[in-house]
Amino acid sequence: MDYVPADTNVVFGHQFASIAGAAAINGPIQASVFGWLPVLLWILLGGVFFGAVQDFAAMYASVKNKGRTIGYIIESYIGRTGKKLFLLFCWFFSILVVAVFVDIVAGTFNGFQTAADGTVATVQANGSVATTSMLFIVEAVALGFILRYGKLNKWCNTAIALVMLVCAIVLGLKFPLYIQLNTWHILVFVYVLIASVAPIWALLQPRDYLNSYLLIAMIIAAVIGVFAAKPEVNLPAFSGFTINGQTLFPFLFVTVACGAVSGFHSLVSSGTASKQIKNEKSMLPVSFGAMLMESALAVIALIAVVSFSSSAEYTALGYNTPAQIFAGGVANFLAVLGLPQNVVFTLINLAVSAFALTSLDSVSRVGRLSFQELFLDDFIKEEDMGPVRRILTNKYFATILTLVLAYFLTQVGYDSIWPLFGSSNQMLSALAFLACAVFLKRTKRKSFMLWVPLCTMVAVTFTALSITIWQLATGIADGTYQWISGITANIDGASVLTAWGAGIQLVFAVLILALGVAVVIQGVRKLLEKPSLPSSAN
Fold first, then answer.
1. What pLDDT is attached to residue 534?
2. Which of 18, 276, 293, 521 could bond 6 through an S-S bridge, CB–CB 3.0 to 4.6 Å?
3. Which one, of 475, 373, 467, lies nearest residue 420 by Cα?
């Protein structure tokens, strides 16, 4: 199901589409409250010297260990307890990511918008994006069978993929689908359930192949639009060290997240992409190259938000999410070339939803595998498992449990979860750096290039999670969050997080910090030990 060798361009499409997600757009736009200069510097420096290095190191370590995940690498070089703690951390993290991206995708598909006066109107752009995305899924399955059984050359496959892409877009623009937000939450979760248990060749691989053309075309179009429109920068270079109660360190780094460095990337590099590598020479362009493209996307997202005169301008236009702000900015750029603003806005929204859906495919699969591996041991054969262990290692049970917990967290809303997502994401990056550093040292390879990113990520994430825990705990204690039935409530016309929602986040934050500290302690001990060569290395 998971080990399916593929051409370099197909694996690159999977890697780029999986890691980019909507986070590379959301992060820089949300972090822009600190000013454009610190965001730009961190995207450039973090992308080249942190993110790309981590992605390549994780893929390299995985390929050198039979395509196994970071969890298995930790077991081989740090210890079995470290692996269990890491897998538990990954499972909690996957739940967070699924919750964030399902809410983003459902918001992008939401066919209705409520105005300030209470009137409800349909949103044609969102409806078109929904239709096209649903067609994408059907076409991806068809393309999967063509790629697997058609035995066509790559140029024929590319031509077929492009024709499918254009047809889906045209039909989406002509036949928009209008469904409410809550219904989309459920439908997206049903899709994720199917996608995370289906064979990788049947949906994940071909859909990423389709999406990669759309995403790369979007980036090229956006770059052309920037040079054509020459937008003015209307955002201060630096807004201050403390904004809205959040300090630049560490929250700039955890907010930008995937645009510079992301622990989630290490799960893709070692969890799905490494199992598709046919030749070791493909590792560098696939992993390092995909991260550099994501950093380029983050820079474009930053340009899009600074092109607006103020937050009031894009709010007045109905752009309420970072994805819509990004799509609106790029549409404005390309309008200079005479392209219809509404059509471009729809297409960019489509690309963003494709990012998020692809990330959902990958992270739900990673979450399912992490939970299964928690209860799998090499010394216990499948036929010797008891009934409880058989249930816990069942892929359907693991998937449904992961998605049910993510569904409840989705009700909090992505904007409330984002700081916790960013902190845990960077914590995962620190753990990936640590695992790769131990692997390299214990197999007598050089690891010095990982030390600075490792120490930086540990400092950033431990600080951010500690502050987040303190803010959530004090907010619940002093009544900042109100005890109202439900996870969110509508107070004075605004959706606010209740104490129940804050309590759920607090539990996740404490568990993630505790697990991260435990894995770091075990890993540092092994890192400082005298190196020895395990029998599994090659």
1. 52
2. 276
3. 467
